[in-house]
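Aim 2 progress. For Thioredoxin domain-containing protein, the working sequence is reproduced below.
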Amino acid sequence: MIDPVIGKLSKEYEGKLNCYKLNTDENPDITTQFGIRSIPTMMIFKNGEKKDTVIGAVPESTLVSSIDKYVGR
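Predicted C-alpha cells for this construct:
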C-alpha cells in the first residue's frame, strides 16, 4: 500500500535519499534491533544514525514532512 509512495519519493529525492525495503520475516535480528512491531514502518537515517520513525500507512505529506526535516529537496 505504501510502496508506490516510497517509490515516488525515492525518485523525487534522488541523489539525496536512498530507500531500502526490508523483509522483517527474513531479518528478525534487524527487526528486533530497531524495535519494529508494526508494518509498514519507515525509518529515516542520517549519517548512520536513526533520526525519525513513521509507523503505518500514512499520507505522502506526512512522509515528506518527516524527510524534509533532515533532507532538503
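The longest helix spans residues 3-12. This observation will guide construct design in the next reporting period.
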